[in-house]
């Protein structure tokens, strides 16, 4: 556990932000990663293997080479189906309610291996698919926390609309907010509040710009958000999720 009374963010910063992007969309390597590099910052891209990754390996290798994190987002993006079959796009055989710990672990290890062939890294964070933190159902219901602890630096965890308190960390299910459909002004204010509290705030974003995904942030709002983060990077530590989690774990030793 970190002693918040003595804890310090690096270089005198007051708090931290990680922006994560889901599903390895074309706009991520075409637009988003270069936009981050233009303001001197880096992000996390949660990259399922069955995605445009398979079609644009070199483009994604370039993203990793520039210092962005390619986070594990599974092989096939399995999720928990609810009673009415939602999400409708998900085949029944990728319903997390029917997964065993052995199957989930095996698929994540293969996904990690595939990503390591692209970025050369052997440790990364995990972006919970559909923000799910459990597999199985009924008597087989199982938390992913112990498997995430075994395989990853950290897990992004559930969508709980909260920042991460440094004195109360669960690296296996950190918790995060959404940036989809929101304005730069709204996000900036939320970030300022988290940083004022000395917290780490994590965001999940899917598309950037209309037509890039069913869930997205407006391209101009995204541009303004990155401008804000670039302007205040001396006060706010903006970095990939893996990097911040590694720093915090080192502070516990």
Fold blueprint:
Elements lengths: L14 E8 L3 H13 L5 E4 L9 H9 L3 E4 L28 H19 L14 E2 L6 E2 L1 H7 L25 E2 L5 H13 L3 E6 L1 E2 L7 E2 L1 H13 L4 E3 L2 H11 L2
Parallel strand pairs: 1-2, 1-7, 1-10, 2-3, 6-7, 8-9
Antiparallel strand pairs: 4-5
Helix pairs in contact: 1-2, 5-6
**CATH hierarchy: architecture:** Alpha-Beta Barrel
Which ranges are low-confidence, i.e. pLDDT below 50, for 5 or more consecutive residues? none
3D shape: globular
Distance between the termini: 9 Å
Give the fraction of residues assigned to helices. 25-40%
Report the CATH superfamily: Glycoside hydrolase/deacetylase
Please name the CATH topology: TIM Barrel
Number of strands: 10
Please, could you describe this protein's structure?
- This protein is α/β, with parallel strands linked by helices and 253 residues long.
- The protein has one domain (10-251): TIM Barrel, CATH 3.20.20.370.
- Helices cover 34% and strands 14% of the residues.
- It has seven helices and ten strands.
- The chain has helices spanning 26-38, 57-65, 101-119, 145-151, 184-196, 219-231, 241-251, and strands spanning 15-22, 44-47, 69-72, 134-135, 142-143, 177-178, 200-205, 207-208, 216-217, 236-238.
- The strands form three sheets. Strands 1, 2, 3, 6, 7 and 10 form a six-stranded parallel sheet that branches. Strands 4-5 form a two-stranded antiparallel sheet.
- The longest helix is centred in the middle third of the chain and has 19 residues, at 101-119.
Provide key terms for this protein.
single chain; 253 residues; alpha/beta; TIM Barrel; two-stranded antiparallel sheet
């Amino acid at each position: 556990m970190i002693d918040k009374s003595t804890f310090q963010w690096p270089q005198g910063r007051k708090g931290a932000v990680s922006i994560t992007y889901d599903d390895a969309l074309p706009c991520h390597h075409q637009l988003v990663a270069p936009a981050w590099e233009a303001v001197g910052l880096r992000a996390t891209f949660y990259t399922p293997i069955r995605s445009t990754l398979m079609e644009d390996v070199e483009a994604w290798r370039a993203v990793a080479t520039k210092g962005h994190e390619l986070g594990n987002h599974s092989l096939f993006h399995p999720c928990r189906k609810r009673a009415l079959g939602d999400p409708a796009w998900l085949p029944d055989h990728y319903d997390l309610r029917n997964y065993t710990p052995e199957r989930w672990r095996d698929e994540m290890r293969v996904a990690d291996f595939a990503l390591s062939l692209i970025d050369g890294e052997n440790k990364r964070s995990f972006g919970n698919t559909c923000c799910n933190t459990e597999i199985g159902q009924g008597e087989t219901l199982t938390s992913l926390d112990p498997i995430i602890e075994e395989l990853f630096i950290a897990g992004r965890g559930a969508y709980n609309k909260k920042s991460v308190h440094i004195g109360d960390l669960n690296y296996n299910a950190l918790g995060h907010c959404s940036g989809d459909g929101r304005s730069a002004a709204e996000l900036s204010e939320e970030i300022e509040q988290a940083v004022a509290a000395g917290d780490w705030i994590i965001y999940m974003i899917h598309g950037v710009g209309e037509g890039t995904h069913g869930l997205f942030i407006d391209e101009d709002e995204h541009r303004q958000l990155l401008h804000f983060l670039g302007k205040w990077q001396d006060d706010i530590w903006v970095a990939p999720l893996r990097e911040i989690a590694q720093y915090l774990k080192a502070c516990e030793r």
